[in-house]
């Protein structure tokens, strides 16, 4: 599962660097995979908590992107 999450993370980051909105979707899905891996695969609560923060930050970034705000 960690390899799949890594591929989604890298793909999402690449798409965002190209300014493609689908990067947000891939990044969000990657966060869900990392949370699941952190809880069930690695038994690492800090990894799951980190990805909750990252998902929240991605949602904020997506909303700002939709509004056309540049931060």
From TrEMBL:
The keyword Transmembrane applies. This is PnuC protein. The chain crosses the membrane at residues 34-59. It comes from candidate division WWE3 bacterium RBG_19FT_COMBO_53_11. The keyword Membrane applies. Keywords: Membrane, Transmembrane, Transmembrane helix.
